[in-house]
Amino acid sequence: MLKKFCCGLLMLVFAAAFSCLPVQAGEVKSVAGGSGAKSDYKAIKKELEDTGYVKLVAGETYDLGNKVLHVKSNWTIEATGATIMGRNCILLNVPECTGYGAIQNFRINGGTWVSSNPQGVEKSAIKISHGQNISFTNMTMRWSNLNNHSIELVGCRDVTISNCNIDGLGSGSSNSVEEAIQIDLAAPLTALFLADYNAWALNLWNGAPCENILIKNCYVRGCRGICANFAAKDAKAGRKGYLKKFHRNIVITGNTIIGETSEGLAMFNVLGSTVSNNTIISRKKQIFSTYSIGCHFCLMGKIPRLYRKFTVKITGNLIGGGRNALSFNSQSKSSYDRINIKYNKLYCKRGAKRAFSATKVGTIRTRGNYTRKW
Predict the structure, then answer these.
(1) Domain boundaries, the chain
(2) pLDDT digits (tens, 9 = 90+) for 176-213
(3) Measured distance CA(46)–CA(40) in Å, rounded
(4) What's the chain look like in SS3?
């Protein structure tokens, strides 16, 4: 009898000890299980609001339902091994100021992010505006339709997108030029969604460009792969001042980038950039179109005097396109200062002689490049 009592007491002591073990800080377990019947949105949002950190459990499936996470500064989502589903955008920030201060130090690491709609959401999955120190790492994204952006950056700086696998869902239109990753200016028609946040009163359409953007070791596929954009629609609407806004210091390295109906990589109004060790392909069928260029650089406005000295480095890439594999040109009076083109394999459907094209360039340095008809 005494032995049974002692054994029972020992079991109670162990049970009490284990029950006092702390739950991992920030960990949220799924209640939805990807069924669509319930949503995990409230639990995830509450943990972020309370602590600024949420850890999604590896192996579990979470459902955001039709909700959008409105994210803030100093928040982190750790989602390694988890699957996250939803029927709307994934997240955005609500900008209340400019100067790259609307959201700071926001991070997502890991997770498989999959739309509940097999054709994808017809919206940008992630929208970050007027922010800095942003990172997206080790994410798999199958969220937006090919005709939409998976990640949209508007007037941001110090952003890293690393080791991500980003692919659009469904089929895009044959003439679509919408990119999977958009690097954009804060302008009325290129960032129309800012109208929802009192854009004129808060000066959110101040033409802020993107700076210090690093995209590395990713797979990216869209109608257009990656684009640093200019305010084309705004210029046509008479707001030509936006053409004098230029992105700076964009680094694209170690990626596979595919444009199904437009360029693999398009860099408009970019001063100072490095494109290295990528595979960049345009699959557009109309090979005389400028949108069939594999890697396309173009100046659309007059460069301010302060920024006229800059270098573009293109090194160690495999680039395939229709009209050209690699092209530099200018639609303004400004010219590229210096470009270094080294050790690239350039494949062009119109022939080896058209693989590389450059106009309005001050100094061109080439070495070890290989050109061939594709």
Answers:
(1) 58-373
(2) 999 999 999 999 988 999 999 999 999 999 999 999 99
(3) 10
(4) CHHHHHHHHHHHHHHHHHHCCCCCCCEECCCCCCCCCCCCHHHHHHHHHHHCEEEECCCCEEECCCCCEECCCCCEEECCCCEEEECCCCEECCCCCCCCCCEEEEEEECCEEEECCCCCECCCCEEEECEEEEEEECCEEECEECCCCCEEEECCEEEEEECCEEECECCCCCCCCCEEEEEECCCCCCCHHHHHHCHHHHCCCCCCCCEEEEEECCEEEECEEEEECCCHHHHHCCCHHHHHCCEEEEEEECCEEEECCCCCEEEECEEEEEEECCEEEECCCCCCCHHHCCEEEEECCCCCHHHCCCEEEEECCEEEECCCCEEEEECCCCCEEEEEEECCEEEECCCHHHCEEECCEEEEEEECCEEEEC
Region at 360 (left for phi over 0; alpha for psi -120 to 50; beta for the rest): left
> Which tokens hold the place of 141?
């994204």
CA distance 300 to 231: 9
What are the tokens at 167? Answer: 């692919």
The structure tokens listed for 360 are: 């309005």
Q: What is the rounded CA–CA span in Å between residue 21 and residue 37? A: 32
In b/e form, how buried is each residue of 38-73, taking b as 16+ CB within 10 angstroms?
ebbbebbbebbeeeebbbbbeebbbbbbebbbebbe
* CA dist., res. 141 & res. 90, Å (int): 10
Rg (CA), the chain: 24
The topology under which CATH files domain 58-373 is Pectate Lyase C-like (2.160.20)
| 25-71 residue pLDDT tens | 689 988 866 666 689 999 999 999 999 999 999 999 999 999 999 99
Query: What tokens does 74 get?
Result: 């100093």
